[in-house]
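Chapter review: from sequence to fold.
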Amino acid sequence: MSTPLDPAAVIAAFIDRVSPYNPHPDAAPVAVVGLRTGFGEDVFTLSDHVIRAMCRALESYRDPLDRGDCSNCGGRHLDENLHCRDCGQLHGILGQVMAEHARRVAASGEDSA
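The token string follows.
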């Protein structure tokens, strides 16, 4: 079992990592972020430098479960085998190859019957 993340501790550690590189350390804060979790409540006063870094970090984040969009239906629920849970098709070239093979097998079965 994994240990739960403490979001406030993560934010505080982020601020500590980024703040030393602030080119204007004496500038007034530009944002206040309040956070309430099961661990408690915290308020963070953020400089322009930190809030920009936080925004860039959030914009660049990609969920590990994001495997792209299904090439068939555009759904966003591809499993680890690139099988779309929305339409049931396999995604991408592998899905196309398998679908074509299935059509050929089905067609050859009809011819032999």
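Two observations follow directly from the output. The chain has a mean pLDDT of 90. Strands lie at 31-37, 40-46.
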